[in-house]
Structure of D-3-phosphoglycerate dehydrogenase:
Amino acid sequence: MPKVLVSDPIDQAGLDILSQVAQVDVKTGLSNEELVQIIPEYDALMIRSGTRVTQEIIEAGNQLKIIGRAGVGVDNVDVPSATRKGIVVVNSPEGNTIAAAEHALAMMLSLSRYIPDANHSVKNGTWDRKSYVGAEVYKKTLGIVGLGKIGSHVAAAAKAMGMKLLAYDPFISIERADHLGCRLVDMDLLFRESDYITLHIPKTPETANLINAEALAKMKPTVRIINCARGGIIDEAALAEALKEGRIGGAALDVYENEPLEADSPLRSLGKQAILTPHLGASTAEAQINVAIDVAEQIRDVLLGLPARSAVNIPGLYPDALEKLRPYLQLAENLGNLVGQLAGGRVELLNVRLQGELADNNSQPIVVAALKGLLSQALRERVNYVNASIEAKERGIRIIETRDGSIRDYTGSLHLEAKGALGDHSVTGALLGDGEIRITDIDEFPINVPPTHHMLFTRHRDMPGIIGKIGSLLGSFNVNIASMQVGRKIVRGDAVMVLSLDDPLPEGILAEIMKVPGIRDAYTVML
Ligand SMILES: NC(=O)C1=CN([C@@H]2O[C@H](COP(=O)(O)OP(=O)(O)OC[C@H]3O[C@@H](n4cnc5c(N)ncnc54)[C@H](O)[C@@H]3O)[C@@H](O)[C@H]2O)C=CC1
Ligand SMILES: O=C(O)CCC(=O)C(=O)O
């Protein structure tokens, strides 16, 4: 019988499902070292946010087939390591949506009426009505950052309370925002005009420290900020300082850069204008049952050899088709990710053209893989092979599929064209005989480069000296170039340059590149 380790508190409903097919050991509060020691005997690991599944644990988990996160965010799991080791990582993308949205709403109202402090004062024997004169949310402006599952539910409830709604989400269509009663605006305007700001975005390199001293300085002195998303999106020191100096009106936080929150955090000494809860967003009986059942069922299925429905790292497609298409799925995902990053914002139309022998295949998994890549910038681990199409539809992305078996530059190749709010871009890629991926075309300029983790693309005028200037600029920022290619159609016309880099590009370098005479555009891409 397979063995499942449950290392965080999980609802009994989940344990009952697991017990049908496995021996279940519940061992909570284990240290990293203890987990590394015992994990070799387990086939599955089920966690909430309390367990950090490190590379070390994954490396030691020689029997591990699946890691189940009873919740949304898998930022406490080293997913790339799990993927490399062939371990499926699953989550519950919707099981705690309502709980998290309701917690954010509760925080907003509690903050407006000082409920935690007022409650505390009565329980301490006082009857102070003067210190707790609050504010109404009715007719106030709520700025929602991230209009996904939780943000959308918050929007519906806040609208019913008579609030005016602004939203910032570069990956959502105006139609979707309109439908939710939100005015889609840029982040600056949201910061300046909101009376309340609530965050419902994942923690990513782009969202880390999004609310920093500079952002706080743009906000109204009365603004109240709610973060029930992820710690690290707000610069806690800057927030504490702004609150102490009365430069903002209040903050309610459920999540922190480090959890548990440090004993000496400046947040702990704030007065009634701050509310702190210990990551309780998903802590309702209903949500815990939902996520436990959702994830336990997936662990059971995978242990029985069936696909998982919310795998964040392995396609949940039919095994036969999957095996045959696997290399092309990777190609499609890479190209989708690339064209999405080149588009740099909302994509309205994705044209997917299957070429050569690929045109003879079922296009659906390829399209799904391309969408997964395209949406991964916005949705990270939330997007998978099962939900990519629905997510794209909800975001108003139209898909056109075409086939052209006569294009035989390579045995099989794939062409993606994204029409976006900020411009149109296209990429083509192919598989070489050994299954290696090549990007063969960017914006109709022929090239031949493998996708790598850090890449730099420029659009420039083909003229002497330009390549050298970019090379020395990167050198001066200590960025090592692994390979470089230029594609052009006519001599001294327009050209593209593609550089594979060993290091991430430091902040500020793109602005410097843009200053080089002849450079028209420059993009960094992470694949
Ligand atoms: N406090 C708690 O206990 C809980 C926290 N969460 C957290 O809430 C967050 C949101 O969850 P969901 O709504 O389910 O996710 P979701 O994936 O449905 O929505 C996230 C939205 O953020 C948008 N987004 C991505 N990058 C952005 C950026 N740079 N700027 C603006 N918008 C951006 C995406 O387009 C998407 O619409 C996640 O980080 C999740 O981990 C979720 C459940 C419970
Ligand atoms: O497991 C929990 O209580 C945290 C939930 C959460 O943060 C998530 O689902 O992303």
User: Anything to note?
Assistant: The chain has a mean pLDDT of 92. Residues 319-343 form the longest helix (25 residues). The CA atoms of residues 133 and 313 lie 50 Å apart. Residues 48-49, 71-73, 96, 279, 281-283 surround 2-oxoglutaric acid (ligand 2) (CB under 6 Å).
